[in-house]
Amino acid sequence: MSAPENRTASVVFTILGSLCGAGLAAMAWMGRYYYLLPAAERPLSELHSRLRPSGSIGLVYGIIGLTLIIMNLGYLVRSSFVRLDWMGSLRSWMSMHVFTGITGALFVLLHSAFLLRNPMAALAAVSLFIVVGSGIVGRYIYTHVPRSLQGRELELAELEKAIKELHQELSKSGVELAEGTGESEAASKRNVLSALTGIISSDRAEKIEFENLRRAVMASPQMAASAAGILPLARRYLREKSGLARYQELRELMRSWRVFHRWFSIMMLIVAVLHVLVATNLGGLGLSLP
Ligand code: HEM
Could you tell me the distance, in angstroms and rounded to a whole number, from the CA of residue 98 to the centre of ligand 1? Predict the structure, then answer.
């Protein structure tokens, strides 16, 4: 029987992310009278000394945001430079990457006090939101690239073997399936946009196929009793079968997307460091920001 996927990190970071998101939304709500003021009137508010970017609370938001963004790069270190198994699977690090990326950006949003007045800070914030936006698209593609349970991309032969094993396990449980088809030639010739729409429509087809299978399993008295074991395997089988049909396309899409995400994040980090240096009067901590 295939080993089940360990989802602990994903669950922990989803809970942590929801708690941080709710906490930050509450902080934004409490500061709404200040955040909704026009820039010129803000210095007159009694909240200005706390909520402006260099204020006692605003600055803490900035420091936490930057710390989370630096931690976020742990994924790059883990995936490219440190290949030690005891450090946890790439899947767990990806959950940390998504959590720190999104939560870090939310802290930066509060740090900016929802106003982009300083050009360097504005550039850093806009590039951060482009990196996070591209991250969300990339995460969608990432989940479609066939991977090992540890999160490593599967080679073609490994994927074909995994599909064969899943097919055999499902057949043993009484599930009747068509043999998995090979890689589709058409899929490898598409441009980025049609590749993305291709993934969305194959998701829909996969959902319908799974629903039909689920009904067949539940309708059979023998299979219904072990549905809790059969259905996750059937879901994985269908996902990997469509991963095989667009194997090259998915890998190429992921590769081109990764270059964009990586270089934009490097640019964002350089601008963020320059912004910190300027904001602290080039390290003198004058904190001259409004
Ligand atoms: C602070 C914001 C972020 C920064 C600085 C950042 C930076 C990076 C870097 C440097 C990489 C490695 C690229 C490479 O392998 O060359 C990466 C990978 C990735 N990031 Fe982000 N990222 C951020 C936010 C996000 C968010 C919010 C998401 C998802 C919602 C995300 C999803 C991904 C994915 C899917 C990968 C590719 C993983 C792989 O193929 O191994 N990123 N990111």
Answer: 8
